[in-house]
Amino acid sequence: MGQQKTAPENGTRESERRRTILRAAIDVFARKGYHGCRIADVAKEAGVAYGLVYHYFKNKDELLETVFETGWSGFISRARTVAESEGPLMEKVRRIADVAFDAYRVDPRAVKVLILEIARSPAGARINRQTAFVDVIRLSAQMFTRAKESGELRPDVDPLLASALLFGSIEMGLTAFVVGLADARDTAMLERAKAQIADSFLHGVLLSGASSKAEPAKHEPVKHELPRGEEPQDAAPPKREKAAPKSRTPKRG
Prior knowledge:
Layout: H1 7-36, H2 39-46, H3 50-56, H4 60-83, H5 89-106, H6 108-119, H7 129-149, H8 159-178, H9 187-205
Helix pairs in contact: 1-2, 1-4, 1-6, 2-3, 4-5, 4-6, 4-7, 5-6, 5-9, 6-8, 7-8, 8-9
């Protein structure tokens, strides 16, 4: 007689099946979208019986919610590690951009689902997106607050708005690849996009000794070049030329 499987073995098998179904759901959501996805499609993609999907997930809403919780929680965890670490703000911003773009490089379909089917689609309304997005913005805002206290951030920059702008820039940068505006297979372009987002953002908020504390450069006046319609204040008024005397035609006698 065959030996009965122990509880840990059964638990492992259950977890593997659940992960397989979840992976299949990500692929189908990415390919067909939420409204085009059917449970039968997920079952076929996973190579399991139709009824088995319902054993783990009651409907496709729960599938989408689980995809979000799994993908988003992983991103939040990595972003938190960066935000709470030691080091200059410039380095942290670059590392957060790394986390986001590395996630896309490793699993582009999952990121596509997060952006198009959850963050922007009405289907995502079934998920508590507000709480999730607020959490990451507040987490990052604390990082910017500490940077402001240490003198790294410009004094006029609001940490909460800076946080929203950072993640908004990252999301839009990834969207360019997700919707096909940029070639996701071009790793060099991915690197350029990541660097450009970080550099553009930092240029606007970072207080650097060379670019922010220095006084604007004073330019020497350019000789013989004046704005249109203006004349030098000490210029002499132009001389008016005397009109030539009119010739008188002699009267005929």
